[in-house]
């Protein structure tokens, strides 16, 4: 496993539209990044903003993705 050199933490609270925009930007540049980054989403919303299917899709697209609710 590659050593992580960049961690991107996305705090999330009831703002799915903003999260979608951020993830879209990251997906667009992820091809140019090496495998040395991770994305961590911390969701403080009462109910999860992202469903399990979306989480699985993001894990498939982005090498190191974690969702914490």
Q: What is the H-and-E element order?
A: EHEHE
Number of helices: 2
**Quaternary structure annotation:** single chain
Radius of gyration: 12 Å
Strand order of the largest sheet: 1-2-3
From the N-terminal CA to the C-terminal CA, the straight-line distance is 25 Å
- Note the overall shape: globular
By helix and strand content, what is the structural category?
A: alpha/beta
* Biggest β-sheet description: 3 strands, parallel
Helix content: 25-40%
DSSP E strands, number: 3
Write a short abstract of this structure.
By secondary structure, the chain is of the alpha/beta class. It has helices at 16-30, 52-61; strands spanning 6-12, 37-43, 65-68.
Explained architecture:
By secondary structure, the chain is α/β, with parallel strands linked by helices. It is built from 2 helices and 3 strands.
List keywords for this structure.
alpha/beta; 69 residues; three-stranded parallel β-sheet; 3 strands; 2 helices; single chain; 36% helix; 26% strand
How would the blueprint of this fold be written?
Elements: E1 6-12, H1 16-30, E2 37-43, H2 52-61, E3 65-68
Parallel strand pairs: 1-2, 2-3
């Amino acid at each position: 496993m590659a050593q992580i050199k960049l961690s991107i933490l996305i705090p999330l609270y009831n703002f799915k539209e903003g999260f979608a925009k951020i993830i879209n930007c990251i997906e667009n540049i992820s091809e140019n990044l090496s495998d040395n980054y991770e994305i961590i989403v911390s969701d403080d919303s009462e109910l999860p903003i992202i469903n399990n299917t979306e989480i699985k899709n993001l894990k498939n697209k982005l090498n190191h993705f974690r969702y914490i609710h």
